[in-house]
Every structure is written in C-alpha cells, then in structure tokens.
Design goal:
The chain has 4 helices and no strands. It is mainly α. 6% of the residues are buried.
Length: 97
C-alpha cells in the first residue's frame, strides 16, 4: 500500500496558518501598524450612545456599538476591563424576543 498524500485543501490551510503566524510575529516585533481611517473609532461617539440608557436603540445599532468597542479594544484604545464592562452593558440592552 502506498502512502496517502495530503489534500490540496490541507496544504492551503497549512500555508494560511503559516502566513498568519508570520504576520502576527511581524506585528509583535515591529509594533502595531498605523490604523487607517476606516477602522478609526471615535470613543466619544461610543460613550455618548452608551451613556443614554433611556434611549431605545435597535438591535442593529447595539450590535454596531459592540463592533465599535471591539475595534477600540483591538486598537488598544481601551483596556480589557473597560471592554468587558461596556460589552456586558450593551448585551444587557439587547432586546430579546
């Protein structure tokens, strides 16, 4: 019996893993690259929308705010504790039907 060869998909996954690891290593060594304007999040905007608890926001708006605080955390604008606190506050405001 011959040895079973690896599939093309497995090779692609391995290459993607290696590329991702290399990018992560470069990012760690060289520091965080400058962020583009597309990913820039205004902390004041998020704080203003979150601060008004009486205002009813739709589920889509709340999820957009959650996405924005994720971006703030990834950009290291807020600490993990602040991120978790804001996330839990927003999840608590999500309407459950």
């Amino acid at each position: 019996m011959g040895v079973q060869r690896t599939s093309f998909e497995k090779l692609q996954r391995d290459r993607a893993k290696k590329a991702k690891a290399a990018a992560k290593r470069d990012k760690r060594i060289n520091g965080v690259p400058p962020t583009s304007d597309d990913t820039a999040v205004d902390p004041d905007e998020v704080a203003a929308l979150m601060g008004d608890e009486d205002k009813q926001l739709s589920a889509a708006e709340l999820l957009e705010l959650i996405e924005k605080i994720h971006q703030q955390f990834e950009n290291e604008d807020i600490t993990f504790e602040e991120f978790e606190e804001k996330k839990l506050e927003l999840f608590a405001r999500l309407p459950i039907d």
